[in-house]
Amino acid sequence: MQAWQFTNTHEPLVLAEVPEPSAEAGQVVVDVKAAGLCHSDVGLMEDEGWLALLAKTPITIGHEVAGVVSAVGDGVTDWKVGDRVGICPTTELGAPGYAFDGGFAAQTVIGQEALVRIPDSVSFAYGAAGTDAGMTSHHAVIANGQVTKGTKLGIIGFGGLGQIGARVAVLAGADVYVAEVNEKVWQNARDAGVIDVRGSIKDFADIGLDVIVDFAGFGVTTADAIETVRAGGRVVQVGMGRLEATINTRVLITNNVTLVGSVGGTKDDVQGVYDYLATGELNPTITEIGFDEIAEGIDRLAKGEVVGRLVARVGE
Q: Where does the record place the Enoyl reductase (ER) domain (predicted)?
């Protein structure tokens, strides 16, 4: 079967012929139907700092995976052939595309403990986006942001993660303000129920934001969040557009700002997002591409040309 494989930083993805996987005890083979593309894929292609996270090279990347179980190994009792599943990338098994070959291929194999059931009413494209973008957004806003009804929340970045995080917060009853440099998606943010959207989080300095979640992570965005959140407020850092930031520690300390890193989430977060998707109250923007467009899609992400979450149709 064909797979898009990463070989090294600053090198293009390679479309290679690889063996089909088989299920060992406790594992299932998943026929991949959709696989999400993520800004962390861009980071992997451009920044050597990501190499330490890889179990091997070359490796088939793609960590947002949804599909159908096509084979089960010995000892698998809760899953059967034909089940619609997403793969949670934060279990002890590790993430697809990092700890083992991921979703930019026709099939992948995974231990049963990483599977989350996709409701019949949820598309595979949404199922893929829910495994990482959805999970990460839900966890950052609800668990680490501690957002509840009445929270004044700032969201930096209304891309693949930010749009989900903002909508989840609206559904939780928060007052949501979005900072997004791409004015083309401002109306999408308003349609999601946010109160206001502007170009910079600093434009909301007079609001008294209780919490700011930075889904962009381009260095200056982290610094701006710390200087904008109210005294005693909380900044949750999710985005890794850059792996370093220069921040004003005087403001951090004297304003008693809490700075929290947030990575991933849990299977419960994935399930929570699937439940929202199944109701129709959460319907993030998805841009779909074909399997043969994956390498080009990562380049489009790097150039900021994608609206919403980019998902590849793998198994037609």
A: 8-312
